[in-house]
Design goal:
The protein is α+β, with helices and mostly antiparallel strands. The chain folds into two domains: about 120 residues, 2-Layer Sandwich (D-amino Acid Aminotransferase, Chain A, domain 1); about 160 residues, D-amino Acid Aminotransferase, Chain A, domain 2, CATH 3.20.10. Helices cover about 30% and strands about 30% of the residues. It contains eight helices and 16 strands. Strands 7, 8, 9, 10, 11, 12, 13, 14, 15 and 16 form a ten-stranded mixed sheet that branches. The protein has a six-stranded antiparallel sheet with strand order 2-1-6-5-3-4. A hairpin with a 4-residue loop joins strand 8 and strand 9. The structure holds pyridoxal-5'-phosphate (PLP). Pyridoxal-5'-phosphate (PLP) binds next to helix 6 and strand 14.
């Protein structure tokens, strides 16, 4: 059975899946997306991703292409047909296909819906968890509605490439005031010398990570002191621990920032505890393939 993609109402062999050249996602990056992890056959933080998707659509005034329960059925069906028990679902909704013109199509056209899945053997390589990863800091050159999970990702493409060329996994973006916003595809966290867990508050300057919200709840549930506020590059250099979070990596330790070791240069205890707690909580999440 070949790997399938879902494109505007049809399950197609992945290799043959196509969208029209005048899809507004392709022409204008006029669309939104979500990435949901499937771990041990469960959809991780599914409700959170669906809620954020609805919010992104609303902010851009794009309609749901199908009702939310139908979309959830399509996701489960694609996961089932592709036999994914560990991996990712990618979901993209665009304003649809229309002759190229900046303003919204009038009358409205049907939004475009594309879904793909990817099988993985694991989330992050064991070496990345055991030794941690490196990040660099770069200027944040993005637009000011980063709370919308838009498919317009060029600054992040350039940032990630710069990180890879520096031998790092991620780039943390920094605003003119010296505050770190987030990573190119992840949220940024530190633990200071007092053991306080710090991550930036969610406003229009960052994407409010679904994993971020779950990790904050877990941290609070085991009594960790948390501060939800911006932090500077200087604070990050002084941190005892640092990590990043995203749907595809969960909490991943950072052991180098701009080439300088974080704390003792090893993954931090709170980071690893949060990662373990997140993985443990996955067992209670909804089953991925087939009926809900
Ligand atoms: N920040 C940005 C810019 C992202 O692109 C992502 C994920 O792609 C995140 C944060 C993490 O969000 P989530 O935990 O929902 O994957």
């Amino acid at each position: 059975m070949p790997r399938l993609a879902y494109v505007n109402g049809r399950y197609l062999p992945h290799a043959d899946a196509r969208v029209h050249v005048e899809d507004r996602g392709y022409q204008f990056a006029d669309g939104v997306y979500e990435v949901v992890a499937i771990a041990e056959g469960r959809l991780a933080d599914f409700e959170g991703h669906m809620v954020r998707l609805g919010r992104s659509l609303k902010e851009l005034r794009i309609d749901w292409p199908v009702a939310r329960p139908v979309l959830e059925m399509i996701i489960r069906e694609l996961v089932r047909r592709n036999g994914v028990s560990t991996g990712l679902v990618y979901l993209q909704i665009t304003r649809g296909v229309a002759p190229r013109d900046f303003k919204f199509p009038n009358p409205k056209v049907r939004p475009g819906l594309v879904l793909t899945t990817r099988k993985l053997t694991r989330f992050a390589a064991p070496a990345q968890v055991e030794s941690g990863v490196g990040v660099i800091t770069i200027p944040d050159i993005r637009w000011l509605r980063r709370d919308i999970k838009s498919v317009s990702l060029l600054p992040q493409v350039l940032g990630k490439q710069q990180a890879v060329e520096a031998g790092c996994y991620e780039a943390w973006m920094v605003e003119d005031d010296g505050m770190i916003t987030e990573g190119c595809s992840s949220n940024a966290w530190i633990v200071n010398a007092d053991g306080t867990l710090i991550t930036r508050h969610a406003d229009t300057h960052i994407l409010n990570g679904v994993t971020r919200l779950s990790l904050l709840r877990l941290a609070e549930s085991f009594g960790a002191t948390t501060e939800v506020r911006p932090f500077t590059v200087a604070e990050a250099y002084q941190a005892r621990e640092a990590f990043l979070s995203s749907a595809s990596t969960f909490a991943l330790p950072i052991t180098r920032i701009d080439g300088k070791p974080v704390g003792d240069g090893k993954p931090g205890a709170l980071t690893l505890r949060l990662r373990a707690a997140y993985l443990e909580a996955l067992a209670g999440q909804p089953v991925a393939g087939g009926a809900p």
